[in-house]
């Protein structure tokens, strides 16, 4: 199967997750997943491999596999419950 590069969103809060916003990083997915993204599919979940380390979540480094949710024409997003327990720079600044 052929791999493709996409951008994914890592939400910094539950509010960001609901809005579909957050830190954007590069990730690798299979071409079939890219087709669903282009079609605007909603409600499907997949996994991808991060190609670019997160600035806000030090544990999300290059090579880490994370789940993503497709939400129509918006950029695929990591479910908030997946990152809620991770140490983030935002928490360290508070």
Describe the structure concisely.
Helices cover 26% and strands 34% of the residues.
Describe the 3D structure:
This protein is of the alpha+beta class and 94 residues long. It has one domain. The protein is globular, with a radius of gyration of 13 Å. The model has no long low-confidence stretch (mean pLDDT 92).
Descriptors for this entry?
94 residues; alpha+beta; four-stranded antiparallel sheet; 4 helices; 26% helix
What is the tally of beta strands? 4
Number of helices: 4
Instruction: Kindly report the average pLDDT value.
Output: 92
Order of strands, main sheet, comes to: 1-2-3-4
Question: Any idea what the shape is?
Answer: globular
Strand content: 25-35%
Measured between the Cα atoms of the first and last residue, the distance is 44 Å
Helical percent range? 25-40%
Whole-number total of structural domains: 1
SSE order, one letter for each helix or strand: EHEHEEHH
Seen as an oligomer or otherwise, the chain set is single chain
- Secondary structure category: alpha+beta
Largest sheet: 4 strands, antiparallel
Low-pLDDT runs:
none
The value of Rg in angstroms is 13 Å
């Amino acid at each position: 199967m052929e791999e493709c590069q996409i951008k994914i969103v890592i939400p910094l809060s539950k509010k960001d997750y609901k809005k579909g916003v957050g830190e954007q990083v590069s990730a690798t997915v299979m071409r079939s997943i890219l087709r669903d993204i282009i079609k605007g599919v909603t409600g499907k979940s997949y996994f991808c491999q991060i190609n670019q380390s997160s600035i806000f979540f030090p544990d999300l480094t290059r090579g880490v596999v994370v789940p993503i949710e497709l939400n129509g024409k918006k950029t695929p997003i990591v479910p908030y419950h997946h990152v809620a327990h991770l140490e983030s720079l935002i928490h360290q600044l508070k």
